[in-house]
Design brief:
Multidrug efflux transporter AcrB transmembrane fold; 3-stranded antiparallel beta sheet; 10 strands
Length: 805
Amino acid sequence: MWTWIARTILRNRFWNLSILALLTIFMAFMATRVHMSYEMTQMLPTSDSTSIVYDNFKKQFGQDGSVLFMGIQSDSLFHLNVFNEWYDLTNEIKEVDGVEEVVSISRLFHLSKDTVKSKFAFLPVVPYKPRTQGELDTIKQLIYSLPLYNGLLINQKSGATLMMVTLDKKKLNTKSRVALIEDICAVSQKFQEKTKVEIHYSGLPYIRTVTSKKVQNELQLFVLLAMLVASLALYFFFRSFKAVIFPMIIVVMSVIWTIGTVGLFGYKITILTGMIPPLLIIIGVENCIFLLNKYHYEYRLHGNKVKALTRTILRIGRANVLTNATTAIGFATFIITGNKALIEFGVVASINVFVSFVLSLILIPIFFSYLKPPHASQIKYLDNRTTGKLLGFNERAVLYHRKFIYFTVLGVVLFGALGVGLLKTTGNIVDDIPKKDRLYQDMMFFEKHFNGIMPFEIVIDSGKDKGILKLSFLKKIDKLQNELSNYKELSRPLSVVEVVKFAKQAFYNGNPEYYALPDNNEMAFMASYLPEMKSKKRTLLNSFVDTNLRKTRISVQMANIGSKDIERIQNELKPKIDSIFNPSKYKVDITGTSVVFLKGTNYLITNLIESLIFAIIIIALLMAFLFASIRMIMLSMIPNLIPQLVTAAMMGYLGIPLKPSTILIFSIALGITVDNTIQFLSRYRLELKLNNGNIRESVVFALGETGYSILYSSTILVLGFSMFTLSTFGGTQAMGFLISFTMLTAMFCNLFVLPSLLLTLDKWSTTKKFKEPVFDIYYEDEIETEILAIEESINKVDESTNKKA
């Protein structure tokens, strides 16, 4: 089959180029249809109980993550000019297309008792823009007399206040949200310029918008950086512009195909899919390095260009189809996680790993078949003294200092075991944002003054229609709210109880001393003053109760704490809730974005661990197909599992937690690092045939043949992944550092540990089954006849082309 592939590639060069060019144009068109994702990543399957409860909550009470928070802190807040600018800003934002409601200290309401109609009237606290400082002082006094808003809208101690902007949910999941957020920020900028008071922004809509914009910018940055790193590395290795230009053409095509695949499947660009193009640039260049290195090595042996290209396809093609298979498996295992974002990442990455391989396998031989044979200066790197010295040191260490290698490995394993013990599992809702970033600093402003802005909801079913109107039920809610107030991570609770307290205060003519639950007599008098619940429009009251007055919610804002702390709070609250609300009579659900995130994080980590185990099993089975020896499979996995252990230990020592954005590192790294193992062992097996089973000579020759490729490919992978450390996302930074570290460790394991084990366990490891596999990468039988046939067919095509010319 590979003879036919080589003949098809080299004999039909023009048609191959034409077909690939047309397909690339089509994928470029599909790439123009790709959009950024602005939706919150769904980590749980829709069938999960937590997901069902959250969906029911949204249907009943509306989306909990559609509020943009804007906050300021200033001693001049109640100075006439600053307050009036805040007043104008509130009204201007209310008029922005896509804004549903705005609440601020200049746009809030209080209850007034109408004794004639026996009804409560909702009246604006600020009926008009104050004209004098005296009027504003009166307004301030009224605001400070309303306990409902203290700690929710204004912090009377620190002088901080916030504006809550409810956004149109239809626009939040589309690209129009970017323009909406930008419009609000543009209007707000005028306030900052006039008053010199800084505005802080936060809330899930704002965070997701800014994060998506960062992803878009980083996608462009990392594609350019990856191409720059790859170009410099290629030139450094091969000292030839030809060896740079043509691989770069291939990786650009790979990027187009990758983004085109995203469009073809109807996916969107997320923080994960945004990493695929630069990843594939690095992986694609690795393929090109193997092909170019083999081409130059072969040409130096016999000086025949066509023969060298043909051998390159036959040998490296067979080898790389399996090495790329292991890389694709590393990505494809994410498909079993059940997480939408990871499934899309796995599908796009695994498909395009093979696309990148096919493009390099076809185009490298075609491009270089049209070029002149390499000059002596272009293959001089094969005799590079520095590389030669490194490989010479490698050879001497393996042959004469294996005890030192084993003691070093033992020390590394012990180091790894201790480090893994320090590994922690956690994650934050707003994860991976550097502490110096403006987004993080603004979030800390709201945590400092209002205890956070992350939604945390408790839904209580009273079990009966109008059950929430019973004073005994309201007292239970109030008791639970007192328990919630003991947690510094939670903001002041808001519920129907606060509304009833607010109503009692109004019933007693606004006296703040009466901001408390009424007794039975007061409740009876107040009942006629409360509005009916017929309106479907969201109001202060029916935002917390359903139309049957059976279900209600306690709404709390939470700090951006880790999943462990969320779980701790949830576990501590559960028995307290059960002691207040008898489970046999009441149904209480803890939900909200924070709780969904906690369950999703735990679910995802479990699935990612399973996907890693699955990747190890699949790669081991692939090794079994390739090497047909259980002993050799066990041996081949050692240099690939040690780097995984050491990387996990490094995370433990550096305090990098195990979370969704870091645990996916292991499957990706495993799929890539095993490539060098396959290359080395396959060449080792061939050398056994050529050296009549002499293990010592076979190991030495295999090191000499594959050593250059392992060094070069590992170097470019380390450099390529290192660029991700420049990301503004902590998870991406960690991925760049940790995968680079894994690649470096794996390179040393494949160059030192694996050959040492082969020499030490010579007869035990090198069995008859290993020598006679079901499938072989390198082979010599009838290869010269096949090459001559291909060379003749190519020469005929070239002669025919020259005659026509």
